């Protein structure tokens, strides 16, 4: 059969992606993998030494939300009730005198984002430091991530003021990259840690998704409104001499990153201005789960290339809780089973999609299980606008 004999095509209005199945499913046997060494040695490597999460104050079931906003359309109700989500943490608009929820302006939403992002961020950061056995005064680099609002000065400056972090702390703010951005931030912080061994750096993802909504009767907004929840998550990272695991039992080292952007699907996930609603609105193309699933193998194989590892060698998979269909598509295309994505589905069930920090919520649950063994490999995978898939290889 010719190399390009099998081609899968997906078309949806402006979304058109062609996947060469012959390339994405190429043979990759153990004999071939064994030809490559396990990553070239480096003098320093970064280690994840702490994790912490936080949410907004109130949680709601999907039925609670349907009742609160008096949603009766059977199609929209079906989207909510078949989402594989039990509860989400959200801050709802205050009730008006007649019991209905008051209308909020874009300015109201930006105020909510600032307040919630800072509050959740402080609590997640402190929980992370507690887990790492560190204090505020130990932080030397702070990388903050958000896509649910825009702030200038950024979250890093606000948190340095609120928490009394050393004003000489270096910082980075990653804004607008979406649900994949947590791994982009970890890549930045991992490199910083290797360049500054012994110093503590923190990745903090804080997403006030209840500050980024539009209420109307369309299926476009129904899908978004049924999916996202508020949450913040932090990882503490330290650079150490390669091979030095002293003081970090059960803490994985970060080995490698790999990315894949899908330019043909650049408009499939976007957060842009809705002139009718007079606010920003998030759009998810209904075909995006299949696009992400079709490319998951490509980036996973790229991540494992030149490591001597196969997918079957990965003991722990921590995938972004992007929604039921996204998780199903990635699971099928990577040949995973339900147990391997139990933390991903559990986070979706209990929190919804908390955007950039979702994979950290899953990582925290894995760490709490105490099931990792020395030498275990793990893969972190996120996906978001671009359309983009980000991955990282870690080892306990």
List the helices and strands and how they pair.
Elements: E1 7-12, E2 15-20, H1 21-24, H2 30-33, E3 44-54, E4 59-61, H3 62-68, H4 74-81, E5 87-89, H5 106-132, E6 139-146, H6 155-163, E7 170-175, H7 181-195, E8 200-207, H8 219-225, E9 231-241, E10 253-261, E11 269-274, E12 279-284, H9 288-304, E13 316-319, H10 324-334, H11 342-351, H12 358-369, E14 377-384, E15 388-395
Parallel strand pairs: 6-7, 6-8, 13-14
Antiparallel strand pairs: 1-2, 3-9, 3-10, 4-5, 8-9, 10-15, 11-12, 14-15
Helix pairs in contact: 4-8, 5-6, 9-10, 11-12
How is this structure best described in words?
The chain has 396 residues and is α+β, with helices and mostly antiparallel strands. It is 33% helix and 26% strand. The longest helix is centred in the N-terminal third of the chain and has 27 residues, at 106-132.
Derived from helix and strand composition plus strand pairing, the structural class reads: alpha+beta
Helix content: 25-40%
Instruction: Give the DSSP E fraction (strand runs of 2 or more residues).
Output: 25-35%
* Shape summary: globular
Radius of gyration: 21 Å
Strand/helix succession: EEHHEEHHEHEHEHEHEEEEHEHHHEE
Q: In order across it, which strands form the biggest sheet?
A: 7-6-8-9-3-10-15-14-13
Number of strands: 15
How widely separated are the two ends? Answer: 42 Å
> Which runs of at least 5 residues are low in confidence (pLDDT < 50)?
1-37
Q: Give the integer mean of the pLDDT values.
A: 89
């Amino acid at each position: 059969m010719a190399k390009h004999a099998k081609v899968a095509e997906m078309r949806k209005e402006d979304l058109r992606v062609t996947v060469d199945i012959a390339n994405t499913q190429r043979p990759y046997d153990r004999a071939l993998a064994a030809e490559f060494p396990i990553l070239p040695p480096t003098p320093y490597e970064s280690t994840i030494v702490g994790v912490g999460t936080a949410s907004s104050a109130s949680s709601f079931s999907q039925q609670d939300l349907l009742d609160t906003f008096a949603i009766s359309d059977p199609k929209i109700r079906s989207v909510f009730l078949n989402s594989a989500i039990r509860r989400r943490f959200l801050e709802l608009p205050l009730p008006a005198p007649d019991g209905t929820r008051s209308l909020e302006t874009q300015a109201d939403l930006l105020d909510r984002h600032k307040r919630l992002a800072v509050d959740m961020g402080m609590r997640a950061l402190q929980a992370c430091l507690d887990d790492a056995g560190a204090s505020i005064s130990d932080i030397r680099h702070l990388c903050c991530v958000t896509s649910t609002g825009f702030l200038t000065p950024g979250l890093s400056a606000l948190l340095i003021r609120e928490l009394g972090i050393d004003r000489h702390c270096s910082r980075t703010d990653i804004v607008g990259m979406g649900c994949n951005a947590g791994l982009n931030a970890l890549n930045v912080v991992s490199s910083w840690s290797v360049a500054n061994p012994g110093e503590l750096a923190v990745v903090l993802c804080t997403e006030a998704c209840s500050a980024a909504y539009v209420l109307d009767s369309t299926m476009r907004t129904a899908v978004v409104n049924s999916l996202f929840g508020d949450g913040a998550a932090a990882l503490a990272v330290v650079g150490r001499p390669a091979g030095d695991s002293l003081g970090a039992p059960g803490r994985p080292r970060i080995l490698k990153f790999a990315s894949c952007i899908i330019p043909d699907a650049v408009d499939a996930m976007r957060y842009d201005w809705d002139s009718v609603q007079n606010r920003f609105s998030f759009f998810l193309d209904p075909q995006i789960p299949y696009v992400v699933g079709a490319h998951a193998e490509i980036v996973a194989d790229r991540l494992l290339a030149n490591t001597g590892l196969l997918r079957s060698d990965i003991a722990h998979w921590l995938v972004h809780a992007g929604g039921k269909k996204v998780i199903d598509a990635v699971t099928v295309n990577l040949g995973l089973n339900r147990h391997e994505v139990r933390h991903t589905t559990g986070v979706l069930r209990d929190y919804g999609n908390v955007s950039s920090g979702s994979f950290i919520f899953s990582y925290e649950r894995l760490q709490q299980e105490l099931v990792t063994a020395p030498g275990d490999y793990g893969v972190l995978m996120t996906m978001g606008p671009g359309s983009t898939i980000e991955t990282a290889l870690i080892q306990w």
